[in-house]
Amino acid sequence: MKYFSGFSLKNEFHFFNRYINNTDYNVCGFSYGAIKALKYVKNQLTNGKRVDTLILLSPAFFETKSDKFKKSQLLGYKKNSDLYLKQFIKTCFTPYIPQEIQHSTNNIDELEELLNYKWIEPELLELVNLGVKIEVYLGSEDKIIDVDGAREFFLDISTVTYVKNANHFLQTN
Q: Which CATH number does the domain housing residue 105 bear?
């Protein structure tokens, strides 16, 4: 299986073991990694490769957020990226105690892509028509993305699993 990490993260795969069927033909992405996973699957299919399932774990969904919100996120990152990332990780784990997490290199361009990415229904439906099953997992207590907006958007395109009392990392108490 091919896995794509969330913004500024690495090696967080273990948080999602219970949601993933780890086979050679599955592609999985968490949060910002969901965007990268989608791009990867499209490329694989274009090149005649097999993909059975695209698994989107708390996919980055900020389409319903205001421009003011997005600008404030970018400004906070530019002002002090370390403080921004510390608060970001804390919010990812809310309402539970933050876990130890490894970080990767990151930059403002990735954050901007994350905040401004638009999911396109016909693109996803094309994957489905090519035989790719899309699974989306959302936590009811996720304080990072617009869970309700994501749920509404993905419901007609994929199998959506709504994890009660789960945070952005899909952890429950």
A: 3.40.50.1820
pLDDT score of 173? 79
Whether 172 maps to a domain, the answer reads no
The rounded distance, in Å, linking the Cα atoms of 55 and 143 is: 20
The residues that bridge with 134 in the sheet, in sequence order, are 54
Residues of the chain with pLDDT under 70: none
Q: How many domains does the chain have?
A: 1
Instruction: Answer left, alpha or beta for residue 136, where phi above 0 means left and psi between -120 and 50 means alpha.
Output: beta
For residue 4, report the phi and psi dihedrals to the nearest 5 degrees: -120, 125
Which domain range does residue 126 map to? Answer: 2-163
Task: Give the chain's count of helices (H) and strands (E).
Answer: 6, 7
Per-residue pLDDT reduced to its tens digit, 28-55? 999 999 999 999 999 999 999 999 999 9
Half-sphere exposure of 85 toward its Cβ, with a 13 Å CA cutoff? 18
Q: What's the confidence (pLDDT) of residue 44?
A: 97
